[in-house]
Structure formats: C-alpha cells, structure tokens
Amino acid sequence: MIQLQQASVRYGAITALPEMTLTIAAGEFVLVTGPSGCGKTTLARLMAGLIPQALPATFTGKVTVDGLDTRAHPLATLARHVGMVFQNPATQLFHLSVAEEVAFGPRNLGLPESEVSQRLDWALAATGLTPLRDRSPAHLSGGQQQRVAIAAALALRPRALVLDEPTASLDVPGVKQLMATLAELHQRHGVTIIIIEHRLAEAARLANRVILLEQGKIVADGDPAQVLSQRPLLRRLGIRRPADESPQTWEHLLRSNGNPPPTTRPLLALQNIVAGYRRHPVLDDVSLNLYPGEFAAVVGDNGAGKSTLGLVIAGLLRPKRGQVRFAGRKRPRPGLDVGLLFQNPLHQLFTDSVDDEVAFGPRNYGCFDPAFHDQALRQADLIPLRQRSPLALSLGQQQRTTLAATLALRPRLIILDEPTVGQDWGHLQQLMDFLLTLNQQGAAILLMT
Predict the structure, then answer these.
(1) Residue 373 above 80 pLDDT?
(2) Which residue, among 63, 28, 23, has the nearest Cα to 46 in the 3D structure?
(3) CA 86 from chain center: how many Å?
(4) Do domains 2-237 and 266-448 have the same CATH topology?
(5) How many angstroms separate the CA atoms of 204 and 223, rounded?
(6) Spatial distance between the Cα atoms of 59 and 356, rounded to a whole number of angstroms
(7) Which residue from 88, 117, 133, 260 has the fewest beta carbons nearer than 10 Å?
C-alpha cells in the first residue's frame, strides 16, 4: 500500500529522516511511536504526499502510495488514496460550520449530493459530532476541533488513513469512540491505518505492527507485544509501556485530599463567573478559590469549558458577569502573576529562535536571569534546539518551548492547558519534576486536562 525506498528528508541543514526504507502492506494497522522530534510527523507527511508536493523540504528517494509515485501525482489525486489528520487540527479547518468542513472533501471529489450527505452523517456520528454540526470549528475546544479533522478525513473514505497524534486532545470517551471507528474501518472496510501516538494503550490493542523511531531511524519494527516488551529500549527512548487496563474517565479518578479549606487569603478568587463566546455560554456561575502553593487540576470532557476558564483567570477573556480577584487585586499582571500555557503552542510563538522565545518575557520585564534561563531550557530539553526557529520544530518541541517561556517569568500562578500534547513519557516526567520544584518553591499550579 505504501512504500518508502531510501527516502530522505531535510529541512534546511537539519536531517529529519536519513534514507528510510519501509513497506506497509494493504490492510495493516500500524502504530508508529518514538520520542518527541524523532521524525514521526515528517514520516506522516511523506506518506500523505505533502512532502514533496506542498511543504518546503529537500526530499530524495521514492515514495509510492497505492502504486502512485508521490512526486508524479498531485495531492488531489493522492487524497483519494490516502487521508491525513494533522497533529494540529486548527491548521486544516477553514469552513464556517462543522458540517461544511466534513462535507468539503466528498464534494470536491464530485460525488452526488446523496452520497455526500450519507458520508457526512456517518462521519459526524462516528466522531460524536452530530450535535455540533452547525457550530463554527473556530469556536470549538481543541478536542472538538480534533474530532472535526478526523471526521473530515473519514468522510473521504481513503484506502489508507494516516493520523498524527489523533488522541492528543481527546477525553477518554472521545478516544474510545475514535478507536472503535478505526477498528470498524480496518476490520470491515479493509482500510490501512497508520497511527502516530504517544498515548499507546488504546492504539496498541488494535495495531498488528509497531514501529519505533529514534532520530529519524527505525530502531524496532514488529509485533506489538514483542516490540513493546523491550523495556531497556523503551526506557532509553522515554516511552512508557502501555498499561494492561483501559484508561478511566476523570470521574473515577477523583479523590478528596481530606484537607479543610485553608484559612489564608486565596491567591485567586472567582465569584459567580459567567463567560462565553458570542451567543454560546460556556461558564455558568463558576466560583473557585485557589491558594498559594496549591497544585490543582481542572478536569472535564472536551468542550466542558476548561480552556475558557484559563483565559478568564489569565485576564484574556472578560467575563460577562462575576468577579476575578488575584491576591486581593482586581487584575493580575500578565506573565508575572499568571502565566498561561495555551493548548495550541502556535498561538504564543513569534520570535526567530527558541532561545529568544524563552528570554523574551524576562527581558521585556527587566528580570532576565541567565542561570534560570538556562535551567528552564535544560529542564525542557531545549538546549540542543536553542538556536532553531520555533516554527520549524515538532509540536511536542513547540509545546516545551512555550512552557519554558511561560515558566521563565516565574509567575505566582501557572496555568497549563493540556501540557501533555505531543510529549513522550520521558519529556513529560522531566517537565513534571520541574513543575513540582516550582510548586515546592511556592508557585500555585492549575493543570487543565
């Protein structure tokens, strides 16, 4: 179905894939994993024909999809044979409604309207989006946007489907629904599935083959049980072996800490907050106190309002009613009092290098500390990337860059909106250790997931 013959990809002077040879047979379900920045997304782009057709990169070798040379056939032709769900769903959504977004591909293929309607209804139902069909994708949560991108790819019904971290922003019900849909496509319709993931548990149950990448090279390839039992290799790559039990929904994970409310003054106090976007209410009568040194989590399904709550706390979204007070004041100082890590790292990256990105806030406020700057880069494993452009990094590396930039100002309250997106277990553990250190030094942390 898909063949790579000595395929090599370079972005400028950076080699992402050095002469890879790989064959994926029709009907396979392949799980591809590896540490952040190892070349997984580049491999996905090669398989979908985006390299060399649409993205600036130096490509040598040969890639064929369903017998078609990706150099010789336009993307419109290749899209009938292989579909792709991008790592960042916002980059492939452009219509004014969910229904129009999902129907766009089938209509572009010139299908009869009855067939378009049937595919639209099936794809929306398969991804749980039927109630949102008339909503604008731009006004959905990150997880909901991810489901729209998946539905749009499913509606094309390609013979092969490449999904780049499709579960990264999904809640547990969304992950289970997606995996059930992929299983049906694979088993009943014979669709070849290539899924790139850090969250391995659900995908490993469906896959009949696992490929591990390291620095653009295949270091293991074979049966899932055999590959994922190589503990020394997984440990070296920072990959967590999937647990035997299925993930639980957040309701089953809640535990009381057994502590009464502190008598100290809250660092953050929300009183009867009502907030939303245009005619769509999101938060309704929300009250919350967060105290100095607390490490708290805000959990909920996709679209529950977690990101909206973070924007209100950070002062980036004005509530329609209610009051936000920080340390007794009406407004926090951006960055210094409250630091917010956005769910989409591209929304807060704008300098020419990782080093400048992390240093920008402290230099802007006149509090740049070279030692802490280097510590933030080191804890986020960004030292080797400090001169690279943030826009040329993988999603996981971009996420670590924005996190280091947020932490560089040492805010009193750190809000992290889905910080695990694109992160392998090794980098995630390293970042969590750093957050725990900052928390022990007095910073309050609000984790949204």
Answers:
(1) yes
(2) 63
(3) 10
(4) yes
(5) 10
(6) 30
(7) 260
- Domain limits, the chain: 2-237, 266-448
pLDDT, one tens digit per residue, over 48-66 is: 999 888 888 899 999 999 9
Domain 266-448 has CATH 3.40.50.300: yes
- Kindly report the average pLDDT of the chain as a whole number: 86
Sequence-distant (≥ 6) Cβ neighbours of residue 421 within 8 angstroms: 165, 168, 169, 343, 395, 396, 399
Res 260: pLDDT: 47
Confidence of residue 315 (pLDDT cuts 50, 70, 90): confident
Asked whether the beta carbons of 83 and 2 are under 8 A apart, the reply is no
Residue type at 11 in one-letter notation: Y
Model confidence pLDDT, tens digit, residues 72-92: 998 888 888 898 888 777 778
The first and second tokens of residue 86, run together, are 């991008």
| Cα–Cα distance, 9 to 18 (Å, whole number) | 7
d(CA 66, CA 255): 51
DSSP assignment letter at 267 = S
Q: Please give the model's pTM, rounded to 2 decimal places.
A: 0.71
CA 410 to chain centre: 25
Distance (Å, rounded) from C-alpha 44 to C-alpha 30? 12
Q: Which helix (H) or strand (E) holds 131?
A: none
Q: In whole angstroms, what is the distance from residue 262 CA to residue 311 CA? A: 25
Full DSSP string of 160-212: EEEEESTTTT--HHHHHHHHHHHHHHHHHH--EEEEE-S-HHHHHHH-SEEEE
438 or 90, higher pLDDT: 438
Q: Order of strands, edge to edge, in the sheet holding 280-290? A: 280-290, 268-277, 321-326
pLDDT at 143 over 50: yes
**Which pLDDT does position 338 carry in this prediction?**
92
Q: Which residues of 190-201 are buried (b: 16+ CB within 10 A; e: fewer)?
A: ebbbbbbbbbbb
For residue 444, the surrounding DSSP H or E stretch is strand 444-448
